[in-house]
Design brief:
The protein is an alpha+beta fold. Helices cover 36% and strands 22% of the residues.
């Protein structure tokens, strides 16, 4: 499902850089401009321009504890006798001479960077204009002492033109979502400028006013599908030409390992996005989009769905009057047994969906449960799925194959999905629904704390290719 309203809220609350920070950035940049204009830096200043994600309007909120950065170009006339490194080093020296910036300046190869107490960074890059001929733009590499051709304004215009073809600013929004995905997953690398180029190349003139970019979720699906197709057709690191600067390969910084990992992850996330987009069930679709974008997607309604499961089931079934003190799912299951467990329980959106690719051949997995007085000892015997239990005890869950044997630790790992439901667990912030490693071999021990109908599942992962080869049926834990 497309879930338009959820995407709008997710962008506003978690992805987009908030207005307060944008205002701070704008104020800081104006102060920097004034400082440079009134400094003793020798070059004649022709003007300034935003560059990169800031200029393209694809800048996103940074991860907690991380600064966001903005690129500012300062266009200047060439200075007779200056080498490329002089433009950077002398700009750094001028800024360090100012009390407001002296402790904030870091020199990099092409720019002077101002760091504002871990919240934001501004990269100020000199861009020399018309040094050898009219219309030439060059940035300055202070490490190699070389002038490097650049087309910053043309590239920004290229991005804007691609966004106009898509319409509705959906290219900008989808790019933000892909950058957010990159940052929260943290398992592939792709510089923002390269990701912007790769995404822009997936939009063509024939897409104007077309169905492929009719709305944001559709645009996201179209872009990642096309990008994955393009990558899968290229098993080796491709040359990715700057669309406005002939001869510049933007993929120069990618080695084969980084490229193949990026190619693999885009293929994986393409499958997840397609799955979430095509899912017709609302709760299941929310859960699948959360697999893509994490727990911040539809967070509020996700918690509500989990904590109100008793009312939703008991009242709708009519089995227990809503005014009764027994009107929760625990009471209903005690009366009717596990047949009263609704199918929606396994679709609750707070439950993390499987994150592994599926193996072609599957193996049987079953779970046994040993009730204990203490975590490590005091066995009270084995229990069945759905037995009513009192809080305070412990259960050791063990995953076995179809023959009742343990899984080889050399060949397999067992991950456990632990899912709590209902108001008590929700109030304690313990709805969980995530995956957890085994404590020992193929076992995991859990404590009984919260009234509700909870369940545990074992996922068996083949180590050699990280594929899921098996999943148990839910083992229901009824805590009274």
């Amino acid at each position: 499902m497309k879930l338009h309203d959820r995407f709008k809220t997710f962008l506003q609350d978690h992805v987009n850089l908030n207005e307060t920070r944008l205002t701070l950035l704008a104020d800081s940049v104006e102060a920097v401009k004034r400082t440079i204009r009134t400094s003793d830096w020798e070059p004649v200043i022709k003007g300034f321009a935003e560059q990169g994600s800031w200029a393209h309007e694809t800048i996103i909120k940074p991860l907690p504890g991380k600064p966001f950065d903005a690129d500012l170009l300062v266009f200047i006339n060439p200075v007779a006798g200056w080498a490329a490194k002089d433009y950077v080093s002398k700009l750094v020296a001028e800024l360090r001479a100012k009390p407001a910036y002296k402790d904030k300046i870091i020199r990099y190869s092409h720019c002077a960077t101002i760091e504002y107490a871990g919240d934001r960074k501004i990269d100020i890059a000199p861009c020399v204009v018309n040094r050898l001929y009219e219309g030439q733009y060059e940035v300055c590499n202070g490490l190699t002492n070389e002038f490097e051709s650049s087309e910053p304004l043309a590239y920004t215009q290229w991005v804007k033109d691609k966004n106009a073809i898509a319409g509705g600013n959906d290219l900008k929004k989808a790019t933000r979502l892909l950058k957010y995905l990159r940052d929260i997953k943290g398992n592939f690398t792709c510089p923002s400028f390269l990701l912007t180029t790769l995404v822009g190349y997936q939009i063509h003139d024939y897409d104007r006013n077309g169905a492929a970019f009719s709305d944001l979720p559709t645009s996201l699906k179209t872009l990642i599908d096309r990008l994955d197709d393009w990558l899968q057709a290229r098993p080796f690191v491709p040359s990715i030409e700057n669309p406005v600067l002939y001869g510049e390969n933007q993929a120069d910084g990618w080695d084969e390992t980084k490229y193949l990992n990026f190619r693999d992850k885009i293929n994986l996330y393409r499958g997840w996005i397609d799955d979430a987009f095509d899912e017709p069930d609302l709760e299941e679709s929310i859960g699948k989009w959360r697999r893509v974008f994490g727990d911040s997607f539809a967070a509020n309604e996700t918690k509500k769905a989990a904590e109100r499961i008793s009312e939703a089931v008991a009242i709708s079934s009519g089995a227990i009057p809503s005014a009764s003190p027994l009107s929760d799912l625990v009471a209903l299951v005690r009366l009717k047994g596990l047949s009263a467990v609704p199918a929606i329980l396994h679709k609750l959106p707070h439950i993390h969906r499987s994150k592994w690719r599926q193996a072609a051949q599957k193996i049987s997995v079953k779970v046994t449960a040993e009730l204990r007085r203490e975590e490590k000892f005091g066995s009270l015997g084995y229990i069945k799925s759905g037995e009513p239990l009192q809080a305070g005890y412990w259960i050791k869950f063990t995953a076995l194959d179809g023959y009742g044997a343990n899984f080889s630790r050399n060949d397999f790992s067992v991950e456990w999905r632990i899912t709590n439901t209902d108001r008590v667990a929700a109030a304690a912030g313990q709805l969980r629904g995530d995956f957890y490693r085994s404590d020992e071999a193929s076992s995991r021990t859990e404590h009984l704390e919260y009234r509700g109908v909870h369940f545990v599942e074992a996922f068996v992962i083949r180590k050699r290719d990280d594929r899921q080869v098996g999943q148990s049926q839910p083992f229901y834990v009824i805590v009274e």
